[in-house]
Every structure is written in structure tokens, then in C-alpha cells.
Design brief:
Helix content: 25-40%
Number of helices: 22
Mean pLDDT: 77
Number of strands: 77
Shape: flat
Low-confidence stretches: 1-53, 377-381, 396-473, 485-498, 685-767, 1169-1181, 1183-1198, 1416-1423, 1521-1535
Oligomer: single chain
Radius of gyration: 68 Å
Strand content: 25-35%
Length: about 1650
């Protein structure tokens, strides 16, 4: 429905230009012009008139027709949408009402369940409480669901109303189009009627013609049938002949087909037989195979059982011998598996040997075909790198020095060095025999020369690069290097022409080729729409590290590569870095495709040739890209450290000896020599041939100490290589490191030495006190540690310290330093803690501590502990006497129990102001004059807590409230104390923390004591506060409990945050539950121990504080026993009027100041040349201002009314700037016995102050989120007086003044009410203004008032809508709303008048409309009027004039009727032809919308002055469309015919025994008043055959007479059944009635009489 509305109102235009199908079947015909409609209204077929009208016809264009059709379709669709939307809104409202009823029912059920829960809780029925609580939760969930449903339905209803309003607006916009469409439809209907008449005439002519044609066609059909019969007979005979011929051919064909089918059937049977035989043979074969399989299975099973039996027998035999059978079986299985593997390996070896032999034979055949060639000549005076290398090897093997003469060049049979490197590029294998010889030679050289294993292929290749003519590879073609071979010489020009590294084109071709190869190898991997990025294989371990290697040894490590991609990947070894190719060999067998997560292994072999750190990568290539594994080779290094840098010996007596140990640790793989020295000594070191090697394994913790050690370095370079400061050359190239050790002995004094510096420090006391053990120098191996003892021998009392260092022979190791500290003392007995601090102590509390005494003496000593006599009652040392053993310690127990007399007893040792105690203690040692003393320090404080006040009196308190009183708790102690109120009664509570907590020193805490009585009695009790040391402090309390006769359902109401001028409402109940005075069964209302409150009506009154925004309704009431009274509490925050007046006065003052400053500026400009005059004016203005300021502000504020513009502006300004406010009100409710109605006059009831109830209200007020900006912020919208059926519209502007966007909701207005919100807005952005259109459409005379709530999440804005609907009531002077104009001579007129009276207080605009001129018929698909039955005729428009002019006319047509006045109207009847059925309807339309009266206009016209009325109708009230031609007077007699009049008489014979009255009827004979001149002024009438009628029971009076002009006379006809009347047959009779006026007319009156026996 909503989609249709949007489609009609928004998307689709009302009139479209596109051609669409017509929905109305009547509109398929061409539209008739308006002139044709007028012609159809005349009902004339005169050719002259048609010719004159044809000239004025105007055809509508196709565009106008299309627009009209679309407009009618849109109007009908709009009406349909309106009806559907209205029905949907009504249905939604019904559902909303049902939802609200369900919610009310759920609320009632909740209340009943809550009451039951309370009752069961009082009865302590837990099972029932659980069941009721479950029911309560279910009701809450159902209520929540109903509220959600209500919100959804309200939203749907608002949307539907909005759509309905839009439809109504659209209908209002299309009202004029609707009227024009209806007028056009009426014109079309009249045109259709005219065309229907013409069509009828044509059809009648056509029907006659069709009848003649039918007869002609019938004769032709008879003739044709005869001819067809003859032709059919001939065809049948020919068909029979053909059938006999075809039958013979058919029999022959069927015979051949049967023979062929029989043959095919035989072939099919033979084929099936063969197939069956094959199936049987297959079945037999399967059975035989199954038997064979069973035999094989039986053989296998028997063999398996035999093997198991044999195994069991072996097992038993082994067990009998005492062996392990399981182990024997495992060994046997492994041996069998090994034998199988050996056999498979031998077969594989045989196969490979065959392949090698075949390959060797093939190579020998290829070599035989080649022609041998001599080797190229060599220069005689230059030796190649190979000759140099082998001569060095031969010299080394013979023990000669490197300076010996080199040996002769090696022959070709000597193995080249490249054979030791099978992976070197360019190497090609030789024949098989030569290969074997080379292997033997290589093994011989390995055995004879161990140095050969240390030669690196990289160094050999590097040396070979120096000599451009030397090569280490075999020639590709044997014999190429023979002496008789002459190589091809390239011309020098060609060599010079080509650049080094190839031309640019060669480089481009190489780059493109490499790019194409890489692009063909590497592919992107995409799985499940994700492309893999990252390393394709993960290495485990991630880093290959060969640590602490030795030159000449072989190291191997295995790594695992794991496929980390999404799918299958490949892995290929690319190689290692160029710097590692001579030392690293990688064994990797490509595993083929690897699935994700699969792995393969790689074996890395490292054979070091030089003592040097190496780093590089092992490169691999995967399908998704390359990756590498880092590799590092580390040489052996020294990593030395000390376990400590400071040795603290502590305190020792002079003469004692203490030993500590320091550990030197080497975590490296290289050992070295070390030596411990004093930091001031130096060590002579030979640095002539030393090399500094900085290793990352050392950590320089003290760089300043390391910088003191300086040495000189000598740098050497390797031949063919560049060395960095961190590179170390090999020993064979740089020579051996020559280190001279320093000899031990007395140092030699010298002032300066070139290479060696020796410093001599004379011995002193410090050096004698600290010494090292025997092991001060030596060798430390790799991964080992050495412990060196440090000896401390104190000589002189005091603190002694010294520094030592550790130097190493390896110059790469830095010097290490450590420090030694010790203290030498000479007293044998001492106390480590000379001051004993007991911190803060309380009186009467015991504090203990342990005093430790040490001795250095080597003999036992007697100790005596003394306390000063002033503190002997408070301090005690136990034991008083003791013996301390040699070189040990002794513990003494100190007990401190301060008494309250300590300040007086301690004397000078105690400071009363600071409460500090300093007590000296003495330890006396036997045979020692000087005692050992120590001091005890303590701060002594009290533990008192003070409660104030000393007693509490709560007074009178009801059981429905609680009284809170504050008390103070003070801590007089210097220590924090924990406290708690224990043993509290149930009706007392202490906060915070339930009366428990910690109070800080000298702190005062405020505690709240809350008293809530449970019953009416007098209370006397004590509150006990205990401290952590179990001290009690008491507080006496008393109170009186009151049980009031009334109670409130809620004692506290917390309103939601309410906007200014908004209202929040809460409800509560005042309950009277006092039903009985029996105090034994339940508690009764009373005050303390007084008498009980009487049972009866109890009154209450709420006492509101003055000027509070609280409204309570009712304030005063009476509650009967067992009843409750509903109380409504409303909170409406408003701004104080004084504040608004003050703001308004300030605004007025600012405006006055601005105006005054403007006037002063103008005056100064005009009077610049007259300073004296301007000064006078300024003085006068200052005087006026002072006078105005001297007026009291109250008088100025009184001038501002609440309706003034300044007041409202100030109110709006303060509302916008309101920051929020929170108020808390306590409203007392006094209670009295009796009914408020029983008091006499204004006599107050006797309220008791002790029975007062209190209601606490929390009222937060906030600034409104939405304010009204139109009409000075008024929220009351008064529409005034609006006529019923009309609509008044008001515009209201609202603004969002909150900082966020708000979603708006609207309360539902009365659906049947007159107020409608036309444009509801769902969302209002922050700071924006929206205009709301409100309409007031009263349907009757009523005073309407509604509240429209604009609801947001922050508040509600209420708009009061007011308006008065005034009914447009008028009265008409015509009774029955029928105005009969009577009979009129044709082509004459008559006028009648009537009045309309305006009885409403509003002026009324009226208009008069005739249905004949503005037809509003809704049914367009009815039968023509002359074809309908009399019961179905509902038309009010009868016969009209032929001329097209209206038969009836009214004056005035429109105007305005003032309130209380009448308007005269004149109706004129002007027929242009004779008819008895002139009629029309006159509508009185008010305000162009409402039809107040329908007046039926009737009239008849005659060509002559006489007429007859009465009788039963014999014709239809609609004239024929044809016009009766007029005849001349002289021919009238010939054309005169009798006019029938039917008079039916029904004689009612209800009772046969009683004579019934006769049946009577009347005929009216009249004479029409006319203005025409006529010979006769009257009309005479006469009826013949009176006697015959009387014989049949008819009585006619009068039978003849005359009628004056403008008069009528009645002819009375009565009938009584005669004696011979047959009731089964009606009586028929006739008579002639003649009228004579200007002409003579004769009527034949037919009488039909019958007897009716029933009602």
C-alpha cells in the first residue's frame, strides 16, 4: 500500500503524455464534443439544427483525450488508495487499542502477582514465591513485548497517517480536475444517449434489411444444398471405387511386412539364445575361479599356520633355553629385511654397472673417431701457476724451505688441481682408463702430502687469473693442445672492434633471455583467492653456524626445508656464495613436488682451508621465487670474564686472616696464558709481530681501563686479496706469531724503553694486607675456569682497599680489573645496631626486639646487661647476665611495656611534647673497663577513640521511614586504628562501610547512624565501637517507634530528567490497611506504647513547600479501611518569574543604552562646532539616566507583563541558556482520623505530628532539547472559530537546541478528532529549525482541545491545540424540500420564491446548483431511464427543454449570508414544450463543499389550458426522444385520439360480518392560468355513461362542472361491490370524460375494481 502511495504521489505525474490503455470500456468510443452534448440534451433530430451545430464542432486532439483518460485513471486510483489507507488506519487503531487493553491486563496481573508474592513472603512459602516470581518474570517479558509492539504499531500508524494526509492534499489539489472530469463524463453520457438513439434508428432499418437478406440467403441455401447433394453422391461413388483398389494394394503390403517381422523375430531369438549361452559360460567360469581362489586361500592359510607353528616352536625352544624370544624374532625379521634390501641393492648395482659400461663403450667409440691433435706450445721462460704450485708442494714434502729452487714443470700425467673440485664449471671427464689412473695418482698425492688438503680452489683460481695464458681445464677436444696443432688466430682489428663484456646488443639479448628464463621458472601462487607472499620454504634451523672450527677437519650439518606455501611447490639448489664455494659443499637431491607442510633434507659439508671467519648464504630456487639460508663459520676465540668486580671482606679484627675466591672463566674455544697483577704494575709484552683481532665475543665493560693498555701493531697484506682491520691472515701467509714471555724477578728501574715499559712500585702496607694465592699465572684452556684465592690480613685498624688486574698473552683479550675492600677493627665485643628503633608504641601494649652482640675475642667473655633505673618498670633485658663464646654472637631479648606513668617515670629520657623516648642501655664486659652501649628509641602514644555526642535521641519515627543522625569518631592516637561497630540491632545501620573502617592518626570521621523502627514501641539501646586492640567505646541511644494508620506505596520518587516547561508524572497509592483493633493477631497503628489508632475512615493531606514545581492531586483525601487512594504527582520545572523579569529589564537597559549611544553619536557629529551646547545635553542625559536608575527595580519590573514581547524574549533566552538544576523535596503527609466531609465548614481535622508520612522527590531539571521559535515561543496554538467542514492551518516552528541530532516521535492525536499534523518530521538535526503544519477541521459545532507531544530521547515538548468548530446551520422555508411549480402553458413561465435563514454566528458563502446543469451521478453504467422499472428509477432530473435552456432557474445563484439574516430566492419554471414530467433538483452548497439542502423542483406544461390529474400511471416519466409533429387546428379532429386514464379501486373486506367503507379515488380537473387571450375563461368537463357505472356500484360526483382559471376541481369516485359481484374476477368498466376549453379533449377513464380480503 505504501509503495502504491509513493508511486502515485511522488514518482508518477498526474497527467502523462504517453499513450496507455483505457480502463473504462465506455471510453473506448471517440469523445463527443461539448456542442454534441448540448445537441443530445435537446433531444431534437431536426436537420436544420444539426447543420447549424455542425459548423461549431471542434474535435479534441489525441493528446487531450490521452490526458483526460490518464487523469480519470489517476483520480480513481487516488480514491482507491484513500479508501485502502483509511481502512488500514482503522485496522491499525483497532490493533493498537487491543494492544493497550492487553497491556492493562498484564499490569493488573503484575499487581496481583506482586500482592501474592508479598503474601507468600510473609508466610515464608518459598515454593510459591519461586512460582510467583517466575510468573512475574513472564508477565514482565510479555509486557515488554507488548510495549515494543505498541511502539511499532504507533510508528506504522504515524506513517500511514502521513501517507493519508499526503493523499488528502493530493485530492485537494485535484479537486478542480475532478469536477472538470465529472462534467466531461456527464457530457459524454449525454452524447452517448444521443448516439444510442441514432444507433437504434439505424439498427431498426438495418434489421429490416437484414431480414430481407436472410430470406434471400435461405432460398440460396436451399438451392446450394441440392447441388451439394448431387456432388456428394458422385464423390461417394468415386470413393468407393478407390477404396476397393486401395484394399488390394494394402493386403499385398501387409503380407510383405508380416514376413519381414517374422524374419526379424527369428533373428532376435537366435541372438538372445547366444547371449544366454555366453552368460551361462561366464557364470561357470566365475564359479571355477572362486573354487581356485578358495584353494589358494586355503594353501596360503595353511602355509601361514605352518609358519606360525614353526615360530611358536622356535619361541618355545628359545624360552626353554632361557633366551628372549621377542628379541630373537625382531632380529630375525630385521635380518630378513636386510637380506631383501641387499638383494635389491645388488640388482640396482648390476643395472648401473651395465649402464656405465654401455656409456663407456659409447664414449670410446666416439673418441676413436676423433683425430688426435698436439697440445699448444708454451713459452719456455715463463712458468704457469700450476708449475709453481706443484713445485711448492714438492719442496714442502721434501722438507726444504720456500726459498729452494722450484722443481721442473709437471708432466701431463700429473693430476691437475681442478680434479679435486668436481663441481668446478668447465671440467669435462676423460676416458675411463685415464680416469682410473687419475684417481690412483690423486690418492697417492693425498697420502704423500698432507698440505694438499689445505689448498683452496679459490686461491688457485685467483692466482690463475694473473697469468692470462694458463688454464686448469682439459681441452674439450682431445689432441687440441698438441704441438703440431695451430690454433685459429683472430685478427687484431676484430679483437679491438668488440668491447669488453660484449656489445650493447649482446647485453640486451642476454638480459632479455635471463628475464624470459626467470619468468618461465617463477610463478605466482594463488590459492583460495589469496596470493602467497614471503619465503616459500622455512629452514630448520634457520641459521647454519659452524663454530670453533679447526683447519683441515670436515664438519657436516643437516638442515630441513619445510614447504610454507599454500599448495605444491618445488625446490632446486642454486648454489652458495662465491666466497664459500671452496669450503662449502651442499648435498641436495631435489625431492620433486612437495605438498604444503612437507619437508626435505639438505646436507651441508664444511671443510675449512684457512683460519678465517666466513659468512654467506646457501641459495635455493622455488616455484614462487628464490630464497636463501644464512651460513656462518667462526674461528676459535678467547672469551674471558671474572665472576665479580668487587670483593668486600667486611670487618675483621687485626691479626685475623680471611680468604675469598675469584673465578676466571673462558667461554671461548681458544686457550691462552694469564697473569694476576696489581693495577699499578705493568707487564712487559713483545708487540713487534702481533696482530690485533677485534672479536664480537668480547664485551668491553670498562673502556677507560682498557685504553690504558697500549700496544703496537704490524700490518701485513695477503697476496692477491685485500684485508680489512677485522680480517686475520692465515699462519702460512703471515708467519707465526712470536710472543716473548716476561720473566719473573725484580723489576729494573729505567726512565724509558722503546718497545718495553717497566714500572716499579715500592711495597707498602696496603699491598701487604691483600695478597693472592699461589696460582697467579698459568694457562687457561678453552671452555674452562680457574679459581684464584684472595687473602685479607688486616694489620692496622681502618678501611683498606686495593685494585688488581688480569693480563693475557693473547693480545686480542682485553685486561680485566677487580677491586678488593676490607675493614680492620680492634674491639672484641660490639653491637651491629647501636640504635634500636621501636617506632610508635601504644600504652599498655608489649613490644619485643632482639639485640645481637658480636665478639672478636678468641676467648669466652661474661656480659651483663643494665637498664637505667628510671625505666626499669617499663623496659627489661633478658637475660640480665650471659656468656658469649669466642668468635660468636649472643642474642638478648628486649621487652618494652609502656605504662601510663611513663611520662612521669622517664624524666629526661621522655619528651612530653613530641612523645619521644630515648632510653640508653649498657653492656658491661668482664675485664674491660669501657662498656658497650646502645640506645632504644620509641614514640609512645595513646589508643583512645572518642565518640561525640555522648548520647543520641532519634525522637518519633514511623516504621515507613528512617532517621539519619551524624556522629563524630576521633582518633587521639598517632597510629591508624581499625574500628567497627559490633552487635548492632536490626533496626540500626551505620554507614559508610557498615560501621567498619580504619581511622588515621588524629583524624575525625563523620558517621551516619540510621534508625528505622520495625514496630511501634519505645527503643533504648547502646552502640558499641571496638578498636583493633579490643577496646570498647559505647554510645547510648533512645527513640520512639510509630505505626501510622496510613502508608504510602512509594516513599521515594525519582523523576527522570525533565525539560523546562515539560511535565513528568508519577503515581502512588495512599493505603489504609487498618481493619481490626486486635493487637494479638497483627500489629495495630499506635504511637510508641500509647493506645491503638481507631478503625475507620482516615484522612490525609500533603503539605507542599511554597513555590515548588510539584503538583499533587488530590492534596486532601479520605481512605476507608481496606481501600487505597490513587495520588498523582507531577513535576513541571519552570523558570522563576523574578529571574525572567531581571533578564527582561537588562535587555531593555541594553537597548536603551544602544539608542542613547546612537543619539549621542549623531549629536556629536552635528554639534562639533558647539561644544558648550553638547556638554549641556550630555549633562542633561546623565541627569536623566541617574533619575531612571534611582527608580526602584520593582516598579520597573512590574511594568513588564507576562504576555509582553520583552518578557517572552527573556524567557526564551533563559530557556536556551539553562544549564540544569537538581532539587530534592520532602513533602510531609499529615494523617488524621475521620472523613473530610464530616468537618464543619473550614474546621481543620486533628492531625497528629507523630503520624506524619514523608514523600521524598528527586527532581532533576534540564534544558529542553526542542523549543518553539514561532509566535514568541508560545506552546498554545489557538485556531479560533472555524466553520464545520472547513480547515484552518497553523504553522509552528520548532528548533533543536541540543548538541546532537534528535529522532522525533509524536503522540497519537484523536483519529476521529479535528486536529491533524500534516508534515511530521522524523529527524531534526542539531541547531536546525523545522516548520510543522497543523490543521483544524471540525466536522460539527464543537470546542476542541488536544495535546500534541513531540517526544525525543531527551524530553517531550507539549503543544496545546485549541479550536472552536462552528456549524453552518441554515433553515429553508420550503416544507418537505419539494417545490411544485404546477401546470404552465408551454412557452410561458411561472415564478415562486422561498427563503434561507443563516442561524450560525459566521457568514456563510452559498451557491445554488441544479443537477441538470452539474450532474454528479456516480453510477455511469446504468440502463437508460426509459428502460428501467418504476422501482429502479432514482433520477431527479426529468424532461428538459428542447432549446437547451434550463427549464428551472434560480436567482441569486451565489452570495454570502450574514449571521442571523435571511436570503430570498426566486425559482422560475419556463417549459418550451408540453410534458408532465419536468423535474430537477436544486442543491444549496455552502462554502463550495457542503450540501445543506436538496430541493426537488417539479412542474408540468400543456399546450392548452385544461388538464386532468389522478389515476394510475400508464406510461414512463420520460419522454420519447422523437418529437411529435404539430398539426394544424383544422386537421386536429382527424388526428384526435382518446387518452386513457386508469383508476384502480380496492375494496377492503377484512371482516365478512361487518360492512366495509367504499373504495374511493379522485380525479383533479384544472384550468391553467395564462396570459394568452382566449375566448373561454373557464374549462367545462362532463362524464357520460353514469347510469351503467352506478349499476356496477360506482358513484361519481360531480359528473359535470366547470373550473375557473387557476383553479382545480376534484371528481370523487367511490365503489361498493354489487350483490352479483364475483370476488375471483375484478370488475372492469369505462366512461368518457370530455373537457372543453380553448379546445376539446376526450379522456377514456378505465375503472378496475376488486375486493381485497387481506391487508
Amino acid at each position: 500500500m505504501e509503495e502504491d502511495d509513493k508511486k502515485l504521489l511522488d514518482d508518477k505525474p498526474l497527467v502523462e503524455d504517453d499513450t496507455e490503455e483505457l480502463e473504462d470500456p465506455e471510453l473506448v468510443l471517440d469523445c463527443v464534443p461539448r456542442e454534441a452534448e448540448q445537441k443530445a440534451g435537446l433531444g431534437s433530430s431536426c436537420p436544420g439544427i444539426e447543420q447549424s451545430k455542425d459548423k461549431q464542432k471542434q474535435r479534441l486532439t489525441a493528446q487531450e483525450k490521452r490526458q483526460a483518460c490518464l487523469l480519470r485513471r489517476d483520480l480513481s486510483h487516488l480514491d482507491q488508495l484513500h479508501e485502502e489507507k483509511d481502512l488500514f488506519i482503522q485496522k491499525t487503531r483497532g490493533e493498537l487499542r487491543a494492544c493497550r487493553r492487553r497491556m492493562e491486563l498484564l499490569v493488573k496481573q503484575q499487581e496481583s502477582v506482586a500482592a501474592e508474592i508479598a503474601a507468600e513472603r510473609a508466610a515464608n512459602n518459598m515454593a510459591a514465591m519461586g512460582r510467583l516470581e517466575a510468573a512475574s518474570r513472564r508477565l514482565c517479558s510479555e509486557l515488554k513485548n507488548e510495549r515494543d509492539l505498541q511502539a511499532q504499531m504507533m510508528a506504522v500508524l504515524q506513517q500511514s497517517q502521513s501517507a493519508l494526509w499526503q493523499i488528502e492534499v493530493q485530492e485537494g489539489q485535484l479537486e478542480d480536475a475532478r469536477k472538470s472530469a465529472q462534467e466531461e463524463a456527464a457530457a459524454a453520457r449525454r452524447g452517448l444517449q444521443e448516439r444510442a438513439a441514432k444507433q437504434l434508428h439505424r439498427e431498426m432499418g438495418a434489421s429490416g434489411k437484414a431480414e430481407r437478406n436472410r430470406l434471400l440467403r435461405a432460398r440460396r441455401c436451399v438451392h446450394l444444398q441440392k447441388e451439394l447433394g448431387l456432388r456428394q453422391q458422385k464423390l461417394v461413388e468415386e470413393a468407393q471405387k478407390n477404396h476397393r483398389k486401395a484394399l488390394r494394394f494394402l493386403k499385398a503390403s501387409l503380407g510383405r511386412i508380416r514376413e519381414q517381422e517374422q524374419k526379424e523375430e527369428l533373428e532376435t531369438r537366435e541372438h538372445m539364445r547366444r547371449r544366454m549361452d555366453a552368460v551361462l559360460a561366464l557364470k561357470n567360469s566365475i564359479s571355477a575361479n572362486r573354487e581356485m581362489l578358495r584353494k589358494f586361500q586355503a594353501w596360503g592359510q595353511a602355509k601361514t599356520e605352518l609358519a606360525e607353528q614353526k615360530a611358536q616352536a622356535e619361541k618355545k625352544a628359545i624360552l626353554a633355553q632361557g633366551g628372549d624370544a621377542f628379541k630373537h624374532l625382531c632380529h630375525q625379521r630385521r635380518r630378513q629385511e636386510l637380506e631383501a634390501q641387499n638383494r635389491a641393492f645388488e640388482e640396482e648395482q648390476k643395472r648401473r654397472k651395465q649402464e656405465i659400461v654401455s656409456r663407456l663403450l659409447k664414449e670410446e667409440a666416439v673418441e676413436d673417431q676423433r683425430r688426435p691433435r698436439p697440445e699448444p706450445p708454451r713459452p719456455a721462460g715463463q712458468r704457469s701457476l700450476r708449475d709453481q704450485t706443484w713445485s711448492y708442494v714438492a719442496t714442502f714434502c721434501d722438507g726444504q724451505s720456500t726459498e729452494a729452487p722450484l722443481c721442473c714443470p709437471l708432466q701431463r700425467q700429473s693430476p691437475p688441481l681442478s680434479l679435486f673440485q668436481p663441481d668446478v664449471p668447465g671440467q669435462r671427464p676423460g676416458p675411463a682408463q685415464e680416469q682410473i689412473k687419475l684417481q690412483e695418482t690423486r690418492s697417492r698425492f693425498y697420502q704423500s702430502s698432507p698440505l694438499l688438503t689445505a689448498i683452496s680452489s679459490e686461491s688457485v683460481q685467483g692466482d690463475g687469473s694473473l697469468g692470462g695464458e694458463d688454464t686448469l681445464a682439459w681441452p674439450e677436444i682431445p689432441g687440441l693442445w698438441k704441438e703440431d696443432y695451430k690454433p685459429f688466430q683472430v685478427s687484431k682489428e676484430d679483437v679491438d672492434r668488440k668491447p669488453v663484456g660484449g656489445t650493447k646488443m649482446d647485453k640486451d639479448i642476454l638480459a632479455r633471455t635471463m628475464q624470459r628464463l626467470r619468468s618461465g621458472v617463477i610463478h605466482k601462487q594463488v590459492a583460495s583467492g589469496r596470493e602467497f607472499r614471503g619465503c616459500p620454504f622455512n629452514s630448520k634451523p634457520k641459521f647454519i653456524h659452524f663454530k670453533d672450527f679447526d683447519v683441515g677437519k670436515v664438519y657436516k650439518k643437516k638442515i630441513t626445508l619445510i614447504n610454507a606455501t599454500y599448495t605444491i611447490n618445488y625446490c632446486k639448489l642454486v648454489g652458495v656464495d662465491e666466497s664459500l664455494q671452496d669450503f662449502i659443499h651442499v648435498d641436495f637431491d631435489p625431492p620433486g613436488p612437495l605438498s604444503a607442510g612437507m619437508s626435505c633434507e639438505v646436507l651441508v659439508t664444511f671443510k675449512p682451508m684457512i683460519n678465517k671467519d666466513l659468512e654467506g648464504n646457501v641459495s635455493f630456487l622455488a616455484q614462487t621465487g628464490g630464497f636463501s639460508v644464512p651460513l656462518k663459520c667462526s674461528t676459535k676465540k678467547c672469551s674471558l670474564s671474572l665472576d665479580k668486580e668487587l670483593i668486600d671482606f667486611g670487618s675483621y679484627t687485626v691479626g685475623e686472616t680471611a680468604i675469598r675466591t675469584i673465578t676466571l672463566t673462558n667461554t671461548g674455544g681458544l686457550g691462552t696464558k694469564f697473569r694476576f697483577l696489581l693495577a699499578s704494575e705493568t707487564c712487559e709484552m713483545d708487540t713487534s709481530q702481533s696482530v690485533l683481532k677485534l672479536s664480537s665475543t668480547f664485551t668491553y665493560e670498562d673502556k677507560s681501563l682498557y685504553d690504558k693498555f697500549t700496544t703496537s701493531f704490524s700490518e701485513h697484506q695477503m697476496e692477491g686479496n685485500e684485508s680489512s682491520p677485522t680480517d686475520v691472515p692465515s699462519q702460512k701467509e703471515s708467519g707465526k706469531l712470536d710472543v716473548k714471555e716476561q720473566e719473573e724477578g725484580h723489576p729494573i728501574e729505567s726512565e724509558g724503553v722503546t718497545l718495553t715499559t717497566i714500572m716499579t712500585i715500592p711495597p707498602n702496607e696496603e699491598q701487604m694486607e691483600f695478597s693472592l694465592g699461589e696460582t697467579t699465572e698459568g694457562d687457561i684452556g678453552p671452555f674452562s675456569s680457574i679459581k684464584v684465592p684472595v687473602i685479607f690480613t688486616p694489620i692496622v685498624p681502618g678501611t683498606v682497599q686495593n685494585s688488581f688486574k688480569v693480563v693475557f698473552k693473547n693480545q686480542q683479550c682485553p685486561t680485566l680489573y677487580f677491586k678488593v675492600v676490607g675493614v680492620a677493627i680492634d674491639v672484641p665485643v660490639w653491637v651491629p645496631k647501636p640504635n634500636v628503633d621501636l617506632k610508635i608504641c601504644m600504652y599498655d601494649r608489649l613490644y619485643q626486639d632482639s639485640i645481637l652482640v658480636h665478639t672478636r675475642s678468641k676467648a669466652a667473655l661474661r656480659l651483663k646487661f643494665e637498664v637505667c633505673k628510671e625505666l626499669r618498670g617499663h623496659v627489661e633485658l633478658l637475660p640480665e647476665t650471659g656468656y658469649i663464646q669466642a668468635l660468636s654472637s649472643y642474642s638478648v631479648q628486649l621487652k618494652f611495656l609502656p605504662r601510663h606513668s611513663l611520662p612521669e617515670d622517664a624524666g629526661k629520657y621522655f619528651d612530653k611534647e613530641t612523645r619521644v623516648l630515648e632510653a640508653p642501655m649498657t653492656i658491661r664486659v668482664a675485664d674491660q673497663i669501657k662498656p658497650v652501649g646502645f640506645t632504644v628509641h620509641a614514640v609512645v602514644t595513646t589508643s583512645d577513640l572518642e565518640l561525640s555526642p555522648a548520647g543520641l535521641d532519634f525522637g518519633y519515627c514511623t516504621i515507613y521511614e528512617a532517621i539519619r543522625t551524624q556522629i563524630s569518631l576521633c582518633n587521639h592516637s598517632l597510629l591508624p586504628q581499625e574500628f567497627g561497630f559490633v552487635g548492632l540491632p536490626k533496626f540500626v545501620d551505620i554507614q559508610p562501610n557498615d560501621g567498619f573502617g580504619t581511622i588515621l592518626p588524629l583524624e575525625t570521621l563523620q558517621l551516619d547512624v540510621i534508625f528505622q523502627p520495625t514496630k511501634a514501641k519505645e527503643y533504648n539501646f547502646e552502640l558499641i565501637c571496638k578498636s583493633e586492640i579490643n577496646r570498647c567505646f559505647k554510645l547510648a541511644c533512645r527513640a520512639v517507634g510509630v505505626y501510622p494508620p496510613l502508608e504510602l506505596s512509594h516513599n521515594q520518587i525519582k523523576f527522570a530528567a525533565t525539560s523546562l516547561y515539560d511535565t513528568s508524572v508519577a503515581t502512588l497509592y495512599v493505603i489504609n490497611s487498618h481493619l481490626s483493633m486486635n493487637s494479638l493477631t497483627h500489629s495495630v497503628p499506635r504511637i510508641g506504647s500509647e493506645d491503638a489508632f481507631p478503625v475507620g475512615p482516615t484522612s490525609f493531606e500533603f503539605l507542599l513547600p511554597p513555590d515548588s514545581p510539584i503538583t499533587i492531586s488530590p492534596l486532601v483525601g479520605t481512605v476507608w479501611p481496606g481501600k487505597r487512594c490513587l495520588v498523582r504527582v507531577a513535576f513541571r520545572p519552570v523558570l522563576p518569574s523574578e529571574l525572567i523579569h531581571q533578564e527582561a529589564f537588562q535587555a531593555l537597559s541594553r537597548k536603551a543604552e544602544v539608542k542613547l549611544s546612537q543619539k549621542e553619536t549623531v549629536t556629536q557629529r552635528k554639534d562639533q562646532r558647539r561644544p558648550s551646547f553638547s556638554m549641556l545635553r550630555l549633562q542633561n542625559q546623565d541627569r536623566l539616566l541617574r533619575a531612571s536608575a534611582s527608580q526602584p527595580p520593582e516598579l520597573q519590573k512590574e511594568d513588564l507583563a507576562s504576555s509582553s514581547q520583552e518578557y517572552q524574549s527573556a524567557q526564551a533566552s533563559l530557556t536556551r541558556s539553562f544549564q540544569g538544576k537538581f532539587d530534592k523535596f520532602v513533602v510531609p503527609c499529615v494523617v488524621a482520623s475521620g472523613d473530610t466531609k464530616d468537618r464543619k465548614g473550614t474546621e481543620p481535622l486533628s492531625f497528629s505530628p507523630h503520624n506524619t508520612l514523608y514523600l521524598e522527590l528527586w527532581c532533576p531539571a534540564v534544558a529542553p532539547s526542542i523549543v518553539v521559535t514561532s509566535d514568541k515561543g508560545k506552546t498554545v496554538i489557538n485556531f479560533g472559530d472555524i466553520a464545520a467542514g472547513h480547515r484552518g492551518i497553523k504553522k509552528v516552528s520548532i528548533q533543536n537546541i541540543s548538541p546532537e541530532d534528535l529522532d522525533l516521535e509524536y503522540s497519537v492525536l484523536n483519529p476521529d478528532g479535528p486536529f491533524v499534523l500534516l508534515n511530521p518530521t522524523i529527524r531534526l538535526p542539531s541547531g536546525e529549525t523545522q516548520v510543522l503544519d497543523l490543521s483544524f477541521s471540525p466536522r460539527e459545532s464543537v470546542v476542541a482541545q488536544e495535546i500534541l507531544d513531540i517526544i525525543t530521547k531527551k524530553g517531550t515538548l507539549s503543544l496545546a491545540l485549541m479550536g472552536t468548530g462552528v456549524a453552518s446551520t441554515i433553515t429553508c422555508s420550503i416544507e418537505g424540500d419539494v417545490l411544485n411549480m404546477g401546470y404552465v402553458i408551454a412557452r410561458e413561465s411561472v415564478s415562486l420564491g422561498f427563503k434561507l435563514q443563516n442561524n450560525s454566528p459566521l457568514p456563510i458563502k452559498f451557491s445554488m446548483q441544479l443537477d441538470s446543469l452539474s450532474s454528479r451521478s456516480r453510477d455511469q453504467h446504468c440502463l437508460p431511464q426509459f428502460l428501467a422499472s418504476p422501482d429502479q428509477r432514482t433520477e431527479v432530473v426529468g424532461t428538459q427543454n428542447y432549446s437547451g435552456q434550463s427549464v428551472f432557474s434560480v436567482v441569486p445563484v451565489e452570495g454570502v449570508m450574514e449571521p442571523g439574516k435571511a436570503q430570498d430566492f426566486t425559482v422560475t419554471f419556463s417549459p418550451d414544450h408540453e410534458s408532465l414530467y419536468f423535474s430537477d433538483r436544486l442543491q444549496v452548497v455552502l462554502f463550495e463543499k457542503k450540501v445543506s439542502h436538496h430541493i426537488l423542483l417539479k412542474g408540468a406544461a400543456r399546450e392548452h389550458m385544461m388538464f386532468v390529474e389522478g389515476g394510475d400511471p400508464l406510461d414512463v416519466p420520460v419522454e420519447s426522444l422523437t418529437v411529435i409533429p404539430a398539426f394544424d387546428l383544422e386537421h386536429r379532429e382527424e388526428a384526435e385520439e382518446l387518452k386513457p386514464i386508469l383508476v384502480t379501486l380496492d375494496y377492503a373486506q377484512l371482516d365478512p360480518d361487518t360492512q366495509a367503507p367504499p373504495a374511493t379515488r379522485e380525479l383533479q380537473v384544472g384550468c391553467i392560468r395564462t396570459t394568452q387571450l382566449s375566448a373561454k375563461k373557464t374549462v367545462e368537463f362532463s362524464m357520460d355513461n353514469i347510469a351503467a357505472l352506478q349499476h356496477k356500484g360506482f358513484t361519481i360526483e360531480p359528473s359535470r362542472g366547470s373550473v375557473e382559471r387557476g383553479q382545480t376541481k376534484a371528481i370523487s369516485i367511490s365503489w361498493t361491490p354489487p350483490i352479483d359481484f364475483d370476488p375471483d374476477h375484478p370488475l372492469l368498466a369505462s366512461a368518457l370524460l370530455q373537457l372543453r376549453g380553448d379546445v376539446k379533449e376526450t379522456y377514456k377513464v378505465l375503472f378496475v375494481a376488486q375486493v381485497v380480503t387481506g391487508p
